[in-house]
What we know:
Elements: H1 3-21, H2 30-44, H3 47-56, H4 62-84, E1 90-92, H5 96-107, H6 112-131, H7 134-141, H8 144-165, E2 169-172, E3 176-179, H9 185-202, H10 208-223, H11 247-250, H12 261-288, H13 300-317, E4 322-324, H14 328-333, H15 339-352, H16 364-377, H17 390-406, H18 409-426, H19 435-453
Antiparallel strand pairs: 1-4, 2-3
Helix pairs in contact: 2-15, 3-4, 3-5, 4-13, 4-15, 6-12, 6-13, 8-12, 8-16, 8-17, 8-18, 9-10, 9-16, 10-16, 17-18, 18-19
Amino acid sequence: MTQAAQAPAASSLTALAQRHFALAERGSNVRTEVVAGLTSFFTMAYIIVVNPGILGLAGMPVAAVAAATCLSAALACVLMGVMANAPLGLAPGMGLNAYFSFTVVQAMHVPWQVALGCVFISGVAFLLLTAAGIRQMIVAAIPPHLLAAVAGGIGLFIAFIGLKNADLVVANPATVVALGDLHKGGPLLALIGLAIMAGLSIFGVRAAILIGIVGTTLIGWITHLVPFAPAKVDTAGIGQTIMALDLNGAMHLGGKAYGLGLLEVVFVFLFVDLFDNIGTLCAVTKRAGLIEPDGSIRDLNKMLYADAIATMAGSMIGTSTVTSYVESTSGVEAGGRTGLTAIVCGLMFLIALPFAPYAAAVPLAATAPALVLVGALMMAPLQEVSWERAEQAVPAFLTLVMIPLTFSIANGLAFGITAHAAIKIMKREVTRGDWLLLVLAVLFILRFAYIAAA
Length: 454
């Protein structure tokens, strides 16, 4: 094709993107969305290495899980972009993959194929709850000051993850956590990266995070602060996890029974992803300006359908629950406002598929500063909380601190919603419209009681 012919073709594609994704209406453009998608990918790319490592401990073939991680993330991101036009990246969720591996497979002795079947069933449950409008009702039942606290809590959460990944914060038996050794290469490189990203952000550079990740990686390699050590993965057997899920075992059919524990497994997959995902959706969409004047999330139904379908597809490809990523906020901070950001992120996961063994080449010290910077920027919604009013301050504070301190968005929401419901009861301000809030509070209390008794 000649250059003259290529130009109209490129122009047509740009015009199509403008129309389909409403770029102008959301104050964005193709270039910004591409940069945002790349930024989201680089802050999420660690899952390509981490997920196979965790699920591999459950006896799953590591190479196959690496491929499944890339494929499921690619499919989920593209699905979110096309269906919901939202700048949300999705991939196998951290936390649930650990529960899958360490609790379900190793502690309960459930075969990983059956565990994948449980993930699929939880995905079907997500879909049914969405179709019935229950997930949307749950989002609507959470008061605005708690949603603001969730956004701030997730900011603290991902900032803490970033500081931990950079070894700037380390475990300490006496004080739980402590400052890391700043003489080591990783923490030093992370501080350099944070300075680069923050400096570029101060001067309004939209691609500050992406430039910072690439620049920090190159500095680390050139100065030997971090080694260039790509992971080695045996590529034999890629595809062994595709359609390996055992639905008969998960549903106690065909004589394959693993006790009532499987009901608990499905419930945990459903429960944790439900509330983790709600928290992530609220935080990311608020930052992206996708909140309607009445406080509702634009195209929430479509986002929830995309998430549910992604979980079902992920289990069939061969990975644990696929969910929305809080790291998507890095792409939003880079200017992403539409589904084109998610699609670019998904395509990058697809491109990364043959190179999954080399994903570890980008050091954690280079991506960690991005999480810290985004975490700082996510504190803005906290100004919406009336901190001088105890009825708002107490539930909001519990939500804010319990998310990072328990390493769980679901736990933060549980404490916040339960406290909010208790205060309404004490003040005798409960109305008929608060029935779902009270039901959620009771469910959370039962969950805490179950955890305490286990």
